[in-house]
Automatic annotation (TrEMBL):
Residues 42-154 form the PurM-like N-terminal domain. Pfam families: AIRS. Signal peptide: none annotated. One of its GO terms (molecular function) is thiamine-phosphate kinase activity. This is PurM-like N-terminal domain-containing protein. Gene3D superfamilies: PurM-like C-terminal domain, PurM-like, N-terminal domain. It comes from marine metagenome. GO terms for biological process: thiamine biosynthetic process.
């Protein structure tokens, strides 16, 4: 059996069972006691920060060239913005605020220094706008560009999670469904298209805006 036979959620279920078993009894005989309010399977993990009114959030996401983006359709500065935006959105979905980020870069050795600076310029732009700080990371040689971000967040009270939904609840979405995909399709098939609608779609793909304020208003 290959992972393609399991699918994304099948793989997550498999790894979750392995992780939970390890927590129950570690190899050195010690057991783990975690005050997790949200575990694997949701957008972020969440646990008590000691102060009962505060919940810590943690999430991670990866973008790989040729899978999640191409350099032909995504300028370096926009790539930096997007790499953090996806993680900020995960924290926002719980009703939290982003706090600190660790960034791992995989870069071909021929990457231009100016491109690297543009990448981080985009990261710092979204960091300034949403009030988070990049505090470290790692860098490795890679045949393609990839970016992995690990992001922490915090919130007052308990997070908004999928399993808390009940029959009769109103299910709603924010933003414009399909706008990012529409922007990508437009850039691939008709990149010279201009106008209010075209500009909106391209901007949605290149510079998605995490709905942090909306998430906070819902918890």
């Amino acid at each position: 059996m290959q992972i393609k036979d399991l699918g994304e959620f099948g793989v997550i279920d498999l790894l979750t069972r392995m992780v939970v078993d390890q927590r129950a009894s570690s190899s050195n005989g010690k057991t783990f006691s975690l005050d997790l309010s949200v575990d694997t399977g949701d957008d972020t993990a969440a646990w008590s920060a000691g102060a009962k009114a505060v919940t810590d959030l943690f999430t991670t996401d990866t973008m790989v060239e040729g899978v999640h983006f191409t350099r032909e359709t995504t300028p370096w500065e926009d790539l930096g913005w997007k790499s953090l935006a996806s993680n900020i959105s995960d924290v926002a979905s719980m009703g939290g605020l982003p706090t600190f980020a660790l960034v791992t870069l995989g870069l071909p050795p021929e990457t231009e220094v100016l491109d690297l600076e543009s990448l981080y310029k985009g990261m710092l732009q979204i960091s300034n706008e949403y009030g988070l700080a990049i505090v470290g990371g790692d860098m490795v040689r890679s045949p393609v560009v990839f970016i992995t971000v690990a992001l922490t967040g915090a919130m007052q009270g308990q997070p908004m999670i999928r399993t808390s939904a009940r029959p009769g609840d109103l299910v709603a979405v924010t933003g414009h469904l399909g706008s990012s995909g529409g922007g990508l399709k437009l850039m691939l098939e008709n990149p010279s298209e201009r106008g209010e609608a075209a500009d909106f779609l391209m901007r949605s793909h290149r510079r998605p805006r995490p709905a942090v304020a909306v998430g906070q208003s819902l918890v």
